């Protein structure tokens, strides 16, 4: 299996991500990675799109149609497929990931730290405060990566979403939150690439200037996708968006495992063999 890191910058919309993710943009400028524009699925809400990103299905197919629908996802997903191929999975992520992929409802004392517990995520550290600092989240993920050597690991930050809800996307605070995430990544990405991880960075949805998401305007649904892997040629494709249903099968192909039959995404990103 080819080790892969998946970074989910919650609510990082395409245009303001592009404007503020300076280190990631630098890497694309110098041919060190690829960038695509992704048209997010609807509704542009967190829990439904967390499911879609990992199982490749539109919301009406997987059924997690609301942030308030607390359940374990019944479908195969990138975590479960990785495990089925004897891979080790990990996540430093919001508690809703524990509910979708491990067990629901989330019980704080029991589920905050799940090491070797049952579920699609073998090793997890989960948070529930939306203001949980991204710096701590990346440190949680690094602990899991160094300690358990996972084949597939998710780092899921909430700082951008939090700033967007508090101040709207047309605010200094929202852009500062994106800059802060980029500053974390500027320290970690070179390290990850030196250790020969493949790295996929994207968002679940965007954010309106009023501080909302869930709707269909470009600001609420268009997100960036940065790819750092020898299997994707350096490129910058920002004009024509690709479907968010690409993400789950893309992650499977990068890991070197067969996507689930029901993953609808037609892979729009050309992949070379290793
Ligand atoms: Zn949100």
Written description of the protein model:
Strand 4 and strand 5 (123-127) form a beta hairpin. The chain has a nine-stranded mixed β-sheet, with helices on both faces. Helix 9 packs antiparallel against helix 10 (172-194). It contains twelve helices and nine strands. It has a single domain, classed as 3-Layer(aba) Sandwich (Alkaline Phosphatase, subunit A). It has helices at 14-20, 22-29, 46-55, 59-62, 78-84, 95-101, 108-111, 134-148, 159-167, 172-194, 218-221, 247-255, and strands spanning 4-9, 34-39, 89-94, 113-115, 123-127, 152-157, 198-202, 222-228, 235-243. With 274 residues, it is an alpha/beta fold. Zinc ion binds next to helix 9.
Structure keywords:
12 helices; binds zinc ion; alpha/beta; 9 strands; 274 residues; 39% helix; Alkaline Phosphatase, subunit A; 9-stranded mixed β-sheet
């Amino acid at each position: 299996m080819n080790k892969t890191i998946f970074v989910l910058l919650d609510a990082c919309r395409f245009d303001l991500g592009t404007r503020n993710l300076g280190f990631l943009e630098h890497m694309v400028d110098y041919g060190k990675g690829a960038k695509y524009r992704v048209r997010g699925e609807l509704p542009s809400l967190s829990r439904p799109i967390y499911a879609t990103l990992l199982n490749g299905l539109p919301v009406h197919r997987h059924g997690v149609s609301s942030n308030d629908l607390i359940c374990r996802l019944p479908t195969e997903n990138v975590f479960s497929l990785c495990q089925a191929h004897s891979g080790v999975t990990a996540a430093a992520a919001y508690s809703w990931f524990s509910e979708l992929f491990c067990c629901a409802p989330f019980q704080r004392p029991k589920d905050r730290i799940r090491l070797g517990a049952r579920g699609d995520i073998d090793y997890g550290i989960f948070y529930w405060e939306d203001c949980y600092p991204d710096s701590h989240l990346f440190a949680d993920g690094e602990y899991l990566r160094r300690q358990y050597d996972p084949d597939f690991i998710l780092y899921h930050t909430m700082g951008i979403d939090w700033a967007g809800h508090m101040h709207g996307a047309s605010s200094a605070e929202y852009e500062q939150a994106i800059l802060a995430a980029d500053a974390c990544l500027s320290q970690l990405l070179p390290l990850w690439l030196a250790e020969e991880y493949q790295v996929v960075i994207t968002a679940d949805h965007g954010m309106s200037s009023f501080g909302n998401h869930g709707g269909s305007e470009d600001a609420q649904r268009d997100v960036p996708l940065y790819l750092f892997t020898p299997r994707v040629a350096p490129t910058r494709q920002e004009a024509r968006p690709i479907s968010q249903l690409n993400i789950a099968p893309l992650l499977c192909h990068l890991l070197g495992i067969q996507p689930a039959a029901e993953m609808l995404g037609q892979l729009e990103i050309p992949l070379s063999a290793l």
